Amino acid sequence: MTVKEFYEDSYGSLGFKAQRKYPNEELCRFMGRNFFDYPIKGRSDIKILETGCGSGANLWMIAKEGFDTYGIDLSENAIRLCKSMLDNYNTTATLSVADMTELDFVDDHFDAIVDVFSSNCMGRAQHGKYLSEVHRTLKPGGRFFSYFPSKNSDMFKYPGNAEFIDTDTLLSITREGSPFFGQNYPFRFLYPSEYRNEISKIGLHPEYIEIVYKSYRQRRELMEFVVIEGVKK
What we know:
Layout: H1 3-14, H2 25-34, E1 47-51, H3 59-64, E2 68-73, H4 76-88, E3 94-97, E4 110-116, H5 124-137, E5 138-149, H6 154-157, E6 164-166, E7 169-170, E8 187-188, H7 192-201, E9 204-216, E10 221-232
Parallel strand pairs: 1-2, 1-4, 2-3, 4-5
Antiparallel strand pairs: 5-10, 6-7, 7-8, 9-10
């Protein structure tokens, strides 16, 4: 199953229950560090794109704070729900059904591009294309934020009978008991040092790196996330 097929079905059958309804905490911290000091009246000049925006759990917050907000997702059902989410909060964003490896925006366009647990849904080659597109469409001095699963997660260390697409990427999550068991699409993991190297290679300075630990199933499963912020040189 492709990522698009999985999420068309998931959002189509579950609606808003397919995703959380409130923003990722680390994304809120990113926004607080870099953009919340801007006067409200000047925020409409700051362009922020979320790639893989889903049903809008993060996007409504960015739009509500007054920024010029954009969102793309592979799933038509996700974008339909995202529009409804934005309407619920009486705000708007520019939304489109699109592939994050082929961003339909001009060079040097965005002040920030954010990725919350989305770009991991592809193998090494595709993820490399995505990061190149991030670099191309960010303004000089623009910021990239990503919340990404680490190889220190039990899901990666104990994959069960899952096949590997490459040394970083599982074809799907097949071990019963894994937090995302049944996610039938590629799932990539990176050590913090590996992610730092990847964004450095494309010309983003890794300005901020942290680790977030989460447990699942009454602490029987540990998952580690890399929180990384890169600045276009």
